[in-house]
Amino acid sequence: MKLFLLVSAACLSMAYAGPMSKRLGVPLTAELECREGANFSSDANDCQHFYICDHGWPKLSRCASDSIWSPAHSRCLNKFEAVNEVCGYQPPVPLPTVPIEEASLVGIDEEWQCDSGELIPYKGVCDGYPHCQDESDESNCAAECDAQRCRLPNCKCADSEVPGGLLPAEIPQLVLIGWDEALRVEDYNHLYQQIFKKITAQRRREPRLNPNGCPAVGTFFVSHQFTDYAAVQAIYAEGNEIAAHSISKTLPSARWATLTERELADEYSAQRVLFRQLSSIPGEKIRGLRSAYLQTAGSNFIEFAQKEGFAWDSSYATPRNDPPLWPYTFDFKTFDYKRWGDCPVPPCPTTPANGFWEVSYLRRIFLRDKVQ
Fold it and tell me: Do the Cβ atoms of 134 and 116 come closer than 8 Å?
C-alpha cells in the first residue's frame, strides 16, 4: 500500500510538472538547434540572452547594456533595430527624424542632460554645434586628433593606422587573450592550464611560447562574485595580468552609466584592496579595468580611472572593424556618432584624458573556421 501511494505521488508530481523544457540548465530547443547545425539559438524568455553553438552544445551569452539579440542579424543590436520574434520582442515606436537643431526642442531621442537642465540627443554632444541653451554640450570637448602632435609612446589617434608607418604585411599577427568574470580553482586546473601550457613528450606541462621565446600570457578581468583568490594568485604568479571588473556587478546594467566617483571607487578601487589582501597582488600592479556589462559613465568613468592610477581600459565597443582599431589614447576625439556610428553603448567619453589608453572591445565569434 505504501509503495502504491509513493508511485502514485511520483506520477502525479511528474504530470503536474509537465513536459521537460530544459536539460542541464539549457533549453531543449537550443540543444536541438545546435545539434542540427545552427550557429546560434535564441532564448524565448529573455531577449538579451542567446546561445552560441560550440561543437553542437549551446553556451549562454548575454548582449551588452540594453541591446537586444537579433536572430536575423546573428548579433546584438540596439533596441530600435533589433528583431526577435522568438522572445516576442516589441521595439519602441520609431521616433520621427528631425534635424539635430530641432531635437532638443521636441524631446527626440533624449539621452544627454545639459547643465541648464534640458535634454538633447546624445549624438549632438561635441559635434561642433551647440544645442544646449548654455552651450554646455560643446564644453571641454576633445579636439580632432592631430597625428603630428599625437605621437607614440604616450599618444595614439583612434584610427586603424599601423604604428611606426609599417605596412600590414610587415607586422606579425597579434593575438590578445582576455578572460571576463570570476576565476575559479577548477578553471585554473583544467581550462587555463590547457590554454597557456602544452604537454611535452615527457608528459610534463610547459608554458606555450611566442616566436620570440617569451611565454604566452593573458589578461583576466576579474569580478568578485564566485572568484577563488587562490586561483587569482596562481594566475598572476605565472605572469598573467589581473585587471578590475567590479565587485558587485549588479543589475540593471543602466545603473553603471550614472555611478558617482565614490560609487566607482567602491567598485574598482576597492577591488584593488581585495586583490592585495586575498591574492597578495600589489595594488599598483592592477593597471587595467573593464566596466561591468561594458556600460560606463562616459567621461566621468575615464576621469575616475586616470585619477585612481589606472593606465588603460577595455570597455568601449566599436563598429570600426575593417580594418580594426589599434589601441589608442583619449588625448583627442575618439568617438564620432555621425562619421563612424561610434559609441554603441553610450555615454562615451567626450573630454580629453591625456595618456590614458583604450583597448577597443571588438567581439569576434569563430564559427567553423569563419569569423562572425
Answer: yes
Cell numbers for 73, please give them. Answer: 542579424
Nearest to 342 by CA among 356, 105, 328: 328
Question: What single DSSP character describes residue 322?
Answer: T
Contacts 24+ apart (CB under 8 A), 34-43: 34/58, 39/74, 39/367, 39/368, 39/372, 40/71, 40/74, 42/69, 42/71, 42/84, 42/86, 42/87, 43/69, 43/86, 43/87
Q: What are phi and psi of 340, to 5 degrees?
A: -115, -5
CA distances 154 to 214, 268, 310, Å, are 24, 24, 15
Burial of 206 (0-12, 13-18, 19+ CB in 10 A): exposed
> What proportions of the chain, in percent to the nearest 5, are helix, strand and coil?
30, 20, 50
In which residue are the cell numbers 546560434 written? 40
> What's residue 97's pLDDT?
42
Cell numbers at 141, concatenated = 570637448
Please give the model's pTM, rounded to 2 decimal places: 0.70
CA 192/CA 318 separation, integer angstroms: 28
With a CB cutoff of 8 Å and minimum separation 6, the contacts of 313 are 288, 289, 290, 291, 301, 302, 305, 356, 357, 358, 359
Q: How confident is the model at residue 176 (pLDDT cuts 50, 70, 90)?
A: confident
Distance from C-alpha of 170 to C-alpha of 213, rounded to nearest angstrom: 20
- Number of residues that make up the chain: 372
